Structure formats: structure tokens, C-alpha cells
Structure prediction request, 201 residues.
Amino acid sequence: MDITRRNFVKLATTAGLMLTFGKVSAATNEKILVVYYSRTGEEYGLGNITKGNTAIIAELIAQKTGGDLFEIKPVTPYPDSYEECKKVASREKATKARPPFIGNVDISGYDIIFCGYPIWYGDAPQIVYTFLEGHDFSGKKIVPFCTHGGSGLSSTDQNIMLTCPTAKILQGFAIQGSIAQNNPSKAAELVDNNLKKLALI
Prediction:
């Protein structure tokens, strides 16, 4: 069920969640981590891609902020076929699956964590929630970002807030996958604009 932000705010306030959408201060001593899941292979409208759309944006964020990168790599890779991947993604969402990923990262030393993903069926891939639920984000600032085909962030910023209620969720942003893949100068400009809104560059 999709809900408006106004209704979500009412719901979250009732549940006692920390409602802290906002901007980060331009403190130079804040350590940044960019965590992301990104898929290669057959992509709708883009053909066969060798670098994922979200990976492109994640690398730009890390370059411009000096942040560290951590890629969420599934133990069982998603199919290269677009249609087959859709079937797996739909099944995982319906069952609230938590697919395992390879390796890990200690987030305790980071202040700001960018969390990136493509939009699948109006949500982040379930493996992103495997990562989020497996770490303690108390006192951390999370910046959601995604690549998409027209949906924007959908309700993923709200879902991340529900998943990580002790974190401060900053204003997220969305960049179309076609721009990330085919228009690097525009992608860099959009990343710059959003990082400036967060007072990080």
C-alpha cells in the first residue's frame, strides 16, 4: 500500500519514530560511507550494461565527498536476463526475503552513510534491507539515493526510516538510470546539485 508523506508522518509520529528529514551540516570531520547495490546485465531500454546505473552514481558520490565505497554483492547473483530478474525480484518482495551478501563493512566509524539502490517494484531490492537490518545505525545519518525508470525515490526513504528508526534520514535523491548510463556530465551535475543541498560540497 502506498501512503502519502503527510499520512506517513502522522503514522510515524504515532509510532514514536524519529522524523528527521533535513540537511547535514558542512562539518569537514564527518566520515562518509557510500553503500550500494547495483545490477549489470540486460536492462530495460538500455540493453546489456557492464556497469550498473547505481554503481555509476555511487562512485560519483564517493569521488566528490571523499567517502568510502561498499558494494552489496549477493551470494547468489541475480539473473542477467531482465525478465528472469523481474521474476526473482517480485518473489523476493512478496516473501520479504533477505538474500545474503558477500563480505561486510564496519559502519561504526562513519557519520554519514549514503545508501543506494535501483527501484524494483516500487521499492529497494530486498538485499538492501538485509544490509540495513544487519547493522546498528544509532546516531548515524542516512542519505537514500536511487536510480530509476520514472518512479523517483518511490517510498523508499520512508521504508528506510522504518527499518532504521534510530538513524537520522536526510533528504534523499533519485537519478534516472538512462542518465546515469548515457549522460555522464548530466549525472555528475545532478549529483553535485544534491550534494550541495546537503552542504557536503
